[in-house]
């Protein structure tokens, strides 16, 4: 599945443990990435500073659902279920 244009749900819902430009301590889940543009695209796409987790994320119909709101909920649920204690 190709990412839905203008979605950016994964850029909000997931946490990023590694430092990224502008966030030396990473990004908490539920916080929009500072590199998410106004049209919900990644300003670091293709940039070697882009976090590995972002490049490894694969959009699927089961995870992303039919619309952005579904994707936000489903990805947040997955984030919570896989969070280390």
UniProtKB/TrEMBL annotation:
<dbReference type="InterPro" id="IPR005358">
    <property type="entry name" value="Puta_zinc/iron-chelating_dom"/>
</dbReference>
<dbReference type="Pfam" id="PF03692">
    <property type="entry name" value="CxxCxxCC"/>
</dbReference>
<dbReference type="InterPro" id="IPR052572">
    <property type="entry name" value="UPF0153_domain"/>
</dbReference>
<protein>
    <recommendedName>
        <fullName>Zinc-or iron-chelating domain-containing protein</fullName>
    </recommendedName>
</protein>
